[in-house]
Amino acid sequence: MSDTTNQLLNNLNALITGLFLLTAFGIVATRQARGVLNLFIGQSVLLATSAVLLGLRYTSDHLYGVALVNIISKAIIVPWLLRKTTPSEIYTRREVAQALNIPTALLIALALAILAYFLGQPVLNAVAPEFRGPNVPIGIAGLLLGAFTITVRREAVPLLIGLLAMENGAFLCGIAIARNLPLLVELAIATDGLIIVFIMGVLTRAVQKQIGTTAVGELASLKEATVEPAEKEAAQ
Amino acid sequence: MSVLIILLLPLIAAALVCLPFKKFWAAGVTVVASLATLILSGRLAWHVSAGDPVTADLSAGWLKWIAVDGLSALILLLIAFVATTAAIYSVGYMGHGSLKPGKLRLYYLNYNLFVFSMLAIPVLAEPTLVWIVVELTTLCSALLVSFENTREALEAAWKYVVLSLMGAGMALLGFLVLFAAMQAAGGHGAYTWTGLIAAAPLMPPVLLQMAFLLILIGLGTKVGLVPMHTWLPDAHSQAPSPVCALLSGIETTTILYVILRMFPVMRAAPHAHAETWAIVLGLISVGTAAFLLLQVRDYKRMFAFSTVEHMGIILTAVGLGASVAGYGAMQQIVSHCVTKSFCFFAAGAVLIAVETRQIVSVRGLIRRSPFAGAALVFGGLAIAGAPPMAVFLSEFSILKAGLVQKHYVTTGLLAVFIVIAFFGIMLHVNRMVFGARENESGAGSLNNHSEPGNKPHLPFSCRLALILAAVPVFVLGFYIPQPLHNLLTQAAAALTK
Which of B152, B158, B231, B358 has the most A C-beta neighbours within 10 Å, making it the best mutation to test the interface with A? Predict the structure, then answer.
């Protein structure tokens, strides 16, 4: 392929990964579960696009497979499964209780993104030029921001999406540095994502039935120091 | 070939338990399947210990990701053993309440899938596939942890899933970086544990180090290493007791096995200080767990913290590095696994007898239920490391290896923490079993149950499982059969190669 085409593909990929980073920030900052879900779908589509661009750039059919698997599992089946398994009123409500307010959360997220850049640098220096690219630091940033989302969220669905976003981040990094992974592995990982959604959906439903809310952040009775209910009864 | 049958058996059992037959159908199928798995794994371990490992057949399509060496065979055997005793224990433990048949089938379905996912870990040799089955262990066991469907159980299951999957996300990046390192080393050879060891000297050390740390932290979360252990006492105390035996006795060890696989690879990058990381994380875990053991209020949580302690001991022993310490670590894996599963069976028996998990409201257990009391004392002594039980022997050989290696500070700290943990566990157990009842009004919750004619009845299968599980706890304290010794030696060699 000619140099200009390669250049164009590289630039397009940089644009797509940049947008990917934006969606990761969006997942941290969006309050409504529906918005978080839509951002996640967008992020997965961007991940697939980046895989296609890298596939064109390095003529790797394998990456097209990755893109296809990603689109089917994360942009189509995951949202469908999530709506099937979790109570529907989650999506219309705004999440009020968050561990941190949004400006603070965004500032910390920014610090994490910068940290990701420094973490990605040694990796970029160690691999061959063809494996370099903006995917590595942005992938690591996606992973860290996903983890951060999990720590600040109280609602079940945004938490779950934080987990899937972590995986998306690891993958964005993976399509650049580990692009010859067997397709079987990719397929298995995609299936795994579906099982995550299913099991956590079932758990969310059970939590809602038991305590009447899906704000799993309120589940905090299991601690060392607290007096447990049985003891309280005994004391009275 | 027998490897494939071992993997298929729990899957077949999982399919069969869904059939709507009589009450004991699901339980019976599970017991038979796990017994068959145990026999096959024993046979496989026997062959491996005689120097006939299953190596990856690179030409054979799907089979190329399956390999069983000494270390794998040891873990496989332990999983099959605990799965069998826990299945026998489940028959009575799950059957004695008034569970709906559908709920019971769900239990056994998840049980068999969970066992399958664990059995697949040591058998698979491709790191990313191993990562996937590690995820599967979390997902298959989540509904087992939340099985009792109380507020606490749901909280425990939720924490367990979220933290484990967070860790797994980091570990995934670790395995992908490892793959990149493999390609940077020239991309020859297959991406398997043995292929990694062969390619390690050519890999960029910085990638190896990054991969190792991501995997250690990520999977360390699921092993329950401090400070990522917060979910472990919750999940391991809220699940039904046979599930606790699986989670604490063998699941943690199985995940630790994946971390251990990284150590021979890391030998190629001495600047990454893999051993130091292991010792530091290990000692922190042992120390924290030892002090937390002094102040627990729930006896199942007590055994859960003891799991954190033992994972720390094993990791420290591996960090000590030499083959002697490696042998000690392997011995510790075996003794912890058999002892901890016994302890949770005993805890389940106590729970049936007194119907509370609070240490303070259990006093004088030996008078109320002699069998449960005796089991708890035996389990407490065994897991705390009293001679002549298995844990004593393995802890002793680790400490000895530490001294021989001149790691005086590490060994000293380890010994101190083990002693503190010993006192912590025995203090609680002693009070529960032999303690005099406090003033009658204080123990109000227990009074109702201790009316005459309301004697707790421990189901036969629970007694049988307790006795079966007690045999290795006791015997391995003074006698290690020659095949097992060979297996341990080979496993230690796989670690230090």
Answer: B158
